[in-house]
Design brief:
By secondary structure, this protein is mainly alpha-helical. The protein has one domain (about 10-85). The protein has 5 helices and no strands. The chain has helices at about 10-35, 40-50, 50-60, 65-80, 85-90. Helix 1 (about 10-35) runs antiparallel to helix 4 (about 65-80), helix 1 packs parallel to helix 5 (about 85-90) and helix 2 crosses helix 3. It starts with 11 loop residues before the first helix and ends in a 5-residue tail after the last helix. It binds zinc ion.
C-alpha cells in the first residue's frame, strides 16, 4: 500500500517542475522587460497580486510561467506533493 508522505524531497518530478518554473520565469521576465514600460514595478505587482490580477498579468506577460504553474498544480493534486515546499523559495531571485 502506497503511503503519501508530506516530505517529498526526493521526488524527481517536483525537482523537474521547479526547474521548468525557474526557466519559464527567467524567459518570461526577460521578455516582459523588453515589452513593458515599467517591468520592475509590474513584476512586483505580479508577485503580490490577488488571484484575478495574477491571472490577468500572467496571461499577458507570463504565459510560460503560467503553464509551468499549471503543471505544478496537476502534479500536486495527483501526488499530494508540495512543489513549493520542496524548494520553490530557493528559485526566487532576491525576494525581500
Ligand atoms: Zn513530486
Amino acid at each position: 500500500m502506497a503511503r503519501q508522505s508530506p516530505s517529498n524531497a526526493q521526488c524527481e518530478e517536483c525537482a523537474a517542475i521547479l526547474r521548468e518554473m525557474a526557466d519559464a520565469w527567467r524567459v518570461d521576465s526577460r521578455q516582459m522587460s523588453a515589452s513593458a514600460p515599467d517591468a520592475h514595478a509590474l513584476r512586483d505587482e505580479w508577485l503580490h497580486a490577488d488571484d484575478d490580477r495574477f491571472h490577468e498579468l500572467s496571461q499577458t506577460y507570463y504565459t510560460r510561467t503560467l503553464q509551468a504553474r499549471r503543471r505544478k498544480t496537476e502534479h500536486e493534486i495527483l501526488t499530494g506533493h508540495s512543489v513549493v515546499m520542496n524548494g520553490w523559495r530557493g528559485f526566487l531571485p532576491g525576494r525581500r
